[in-house]
Sequence to fold (479 residues):
Amino acid sequence: MTQNAQPQPPSRIESSSLYNPDLAPAQADRRHWGTYNFAALWISMSVNILTYMLAASLIQGGMNWRQAVVTIFLGNVIVLVPMLLNSHPGAKYGVPFPVLARASFGVLGANVAAILRALVACGWFGIQTWIGGEAISTLLATIAPGWKNFPYATAVCFLLFWLINLAVILMGIEYIRILQGISAPVLLAVGLLLLGWAYHSAGGFGPMLAAPSRFTNFADFLKFLIPALNGTVGFWATVSLNIPDFTRFARNQREQMIGQALALPTTMTLYAFIGIAVTSATVVIYGTAISDPVQLLSRFHSPVAVVISLIAILLATLNVNIGANVVSPANDFSNLWPRRISFRTGGVITCFMGIALMPWKLLADYNTFILGWLGGYAAFLGPVAGIMICDYFVVRRRVLQVDDLYLRGGAYEYSNGFNWRAVIALALGAGTALIGLAVPSLRVLYDYSWFVGFAVSFAVYYVMMKSLRPTVLSPATTS
Fold:
C-alpha cells in the first residue's frame, strides 16, 4: 500500500446487500476532481440548447434583455444555495446521492427519493436525446438536402445519438470527467463566435438589444417574473439533489465550492445573454425571431460552419445529457439492488427508459410536458431537498456514520429500513404544493411548488425528528 492510499472498506460493508463498488465511499485514489473540473462540469451542462431557448422565451414573454439576464442570474444564484449545501456531505464523506438519502429516509426508504429523482432524469434524458437527434438531422439536411426527404430521418438520428450516449455511459464516470474538461472551452468559444456573427450581421448591439419591455407596470411584470424565476430555479433543481454524485470525487470542499460558485451562475447568465442577443439579432437579420439555434444554424450555407456547429451541438447536448440525466439515475437504479445493478447497468436502464417514455410524444405537446409533468415533479423534488438538508445540517450537524449507511440494523435502519417521518414530511410537502392544481384560488402554491414543498417538508421533518434522538458519531470518531 502506498503512503497516500486509504484503507479499503471493512469486509462487513463489502458483504452487505446495500453495498457495491460504485456506491462505495470514494477513496483518495478517486478524489481528483479540482476547481477546473467542477467549473467545466457546469460550463458543459449550462451551454446547451435548452439554456439558449429558456433565455429566448423570457424575451418572447415580454421582458427586455436586462430583465431577462437579471432573472436568469438571480434564479441560478438561488439554486446555487441548495446545490452547495447538498455538495458538502458528498465531498466530506465521498458518498453518492442515494446513499446520502439513506441517512434521512432510511437504508431502504432512500429508494423513494432516489426513484423520484431517477424518473424525471429519464424523461429529460429522452428529451435531450431526441433534441440531439433532431439537431443531427437538421444539420445533415443542410449538408445533403436530399436527407430531408427520408421519412425516418429524425428517428434514425435519434437512435444514432442514443447509441453515442450509451457508449459514453459504458466507458464510465472517469471518461465523463475527461470529456467535459475538453469540451467546456470549445463550447464557450462556439457560443462567443455565434454572438460575434450576430453582432456583425445586425450592425452592433444597439439594434440587437433595442426591444423594450412590454410590461406597462410593475404588477404585470411581477406576475411574469415569479413563474419565470421559479422556472429558472427549477432548471437545475434536479441536479441540486444529486450533486453528491459528483462532489464525492472532489479533492476538498474548497475546490468544489469555488468551481461551482464561479461557473454555474456566470455560465448560465453568459450563455443566456448569447441566446437573448442572437435571438434579438435574428429579428434584424431575418425579420423574425428564431429562438431555436438549430434552426438558425440550418440557415448557414458554409459547409465548414455547419460541420463545426454540428460538432458543438453534439458535444453540448451529450455533456448535459450525461452529466444531468444519466449519472444520477444510474446511481439511483443501482441503489435499488446494489449487488446486481452497477453504475453502468443503471446507465443502460436509464437509456432504455428514455426510449420507453417516448420523448417524441412528450415534445409534441411541449408546454403541457414542462408545466404539467416536470412542473409536478418539482413538488416532489423540493421536499426531498428540504428533508435531506434539514437532516444533514440541523438534525445531525454534518456528522454521519458512514459504515451504517451500508448496513442493515444500523443507525439508519429506523423501522424496517424506512424512516416514516421523512416519508410523511415528503407527502405533506408535495401535497401542499399540489393543492394548487385542485384549488384555483391556491394556484400560487403550485406556481411556487419547489419552494413551497421545500419549506413545508423542511419544517415538518425537523419537528418530527425532534422526538427522535439521532444516533451519530462524535466528530472525533467520524469515518
Summary: Confidence is low (pLDDT under 50) at residues 1-5, 470-479. The chain has 22 helices and no strands. The first helix runs from residue 11 to 14. The chain has one domain: 28-367.
